[in-house]
Amino acid sequence: MAVSVQAQQKNDNEKCRYTKTTYGYLMVLREGDNVLSLIENLAKEQQIPSANFTGIGFAQEVTFGFYDFNQKKFNPKTFNKVEMGSLTGSIAWNEGKPSLHIHGVATDDKFDAYGGHILALKVGTGSMEIYITVNSEKLERKIEQPLNANVLQLPCIK
Question: What value does the mean pLDDT take over residues 76-99?
């Protein structure tokens, strides 16, 4: 008996996206998922104080940004249908909301690699696995001048 495409898509949408582990969480994201939004939602729902994460998987679309220090903004460039060979980042907080800092490297079908600061990321065909290691200390980010950069703030150790 064949399962209709629509029924399969509904089933995929209902699959869980994360599970708790001894060190934090494992996320398995599906085609079309907005990676940044889902990590932010997990941080809010689970009240993650701070964390670092790594990941791999297929991307339907990734937008990298190269920071222009003179303009004080990112110059974006988007790539489609690539594989994320590496994804690494951190979760902190800014004004009560999760604040992500993510970098990655993507390769295309010619094995050309692109990388840098990730501004947007959508999962492609298949899945994306993200391993999140939770830290006990709540960390904040704040905009620092003169670069207008959102910088992680560390508590001083005495």
Answer: 98
